[in-house]
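User: Hey, my collaborator sent me this sequence without any context and asked if I could get a structure. I don't really work with proteins. Can you help?
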Amino acid sequence: MQSEPETVCNVAISFDRCKITSVTCSCGNKDIFYCAHVVALSLYRIRKPDQVKLHLPISETLFQMNRDQLQKFVQYLITVHHTEVLPTAQKLADEILSQNSEINQVHGAPDPTAGASIDDENCWHLDEEQVQEQVKLFLSQGGYHGSGKQLNLLFAKVREMLKMRDSNGARMLTLITEQFMADPRLSLWRQQGTAMTDKYRQLWDELGALWMCIVLNPHCKLEQKASWLKQLKKWNSVDVCPWEDGNHGNELPNLTNALPQGANANQENMGQCKSLEYQHLPAHKFLEEGESYLTLAVEVALIGLGQQRIMPDGLYAQEKVCRNEEQLISKLQEIELDDTLVKIFRKQAVFLLEAGPYSGLGEVIHRESVPMHTFAKYLFTSLLPHDAELAYKTALRAMRLLVLESTAPSGDVSRPQHIASVVPNRYPRWFTLSHIESQQCELASTMLTAAKGDVRRLETVLESIQKNIHSSSHIFKLAQDAFKIATLMDSLPDITLLKVSLELGLQ
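Assistant: No problem. I've predicted the 3D structure and written it out in structure-token form, which is a compact way to encode the shape of the chain:
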């Protein structure tokens, strides 16, 4: 087997405060990541530091030379690199000999080998041109040849940078976003009035999720966030900027309002983990006694899930609302509730019931507010062993589905914190309505199961089902569920539950 001829590459690496700030290699490899020669030289420097000779900055070396040595140095340099540096050397010589030239107005001269000053920002080397070229290439392939997979790998790289607090994460995401905004397909789809493909929408969702991670990073300085806000507003004003539902408009909810989703490239890795252990790690700064990162994370998740929000337009955006909610609840279900977390659940459930128009579980909500059935089912099952009264109160409040009612309740006008819902008699386009109704049915079935043997609660749940569920098929399913629960083999039939089943069946 014939081996390839040995190739000698010239590699140069610059360091500044333990970071590689620039790299060059004569191999000509064009990629976002370092070539093998740069990696090899870096490892050699790490493993054998004594064998790499250190030199003073070139300005210090030149200072130690006399006139003859300086002349010899310059002439040899020009001789060795004749074609590369001669034009530049001649130009600099002419400027230095000219008394009024700009170069003579500045004291001293630059020294790239001296490194940056302590106040200058130092960051890892990132070949911006290569990032732009690769993203442009992947987008031009239109989903073919695994371009979507390659873009997700770039997104995963950004996430890795953010995790390591590498400032290049925001730089790289800015470059990626600029190429997305410059994609000619956005203008074409806008002109034709067609929606973007699902794969392309998912890439935009991931882009928005990463920007959410950046702007919410507590370690970033205010001036950094101000510059990102300015840039986001600039992109937001572009006509071809897509809407969250995949159409076009002058808003960019993907980058401003979207809930973060995990990177597609990371979901498979997460799925391979057998189990995750959550622990109360103490947070020392700006927190009250007894709080931990876990308690804060759970509380923030509950607050977010319970916020009242209007159902967005478009099939894709509505599906994403449901998907995000289910993913967040799935994460919460991995956590085992202890006494500290139960207190948080109780506190947040009470807040959501009494929070007025800011809560999706408030007394009065907008007719087109996103229903709370899925979230309420999770709250109900979590609170039931600890506070049954609060669990039922929360679940019963969430049973409503005002979008299917001809008029919404006007609310108590004597209480100013409640906003009256005054909406026309119309049915908005809720593409996920069948899924929402099935979640409403699941919530009702969960309450029926838990209320077995409790006459008062069964009557209350029955009344809520008759008032709020409008689908005959779902009412019939609940009748079947009630019958099965009432006639379990290991116990005597529950007469009250059988009556509930009969009444629902007759309805």
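In plain terms: The two ends are 82 Å apart (CA to CA). You can pass these tokens on to your collaborator as they are.
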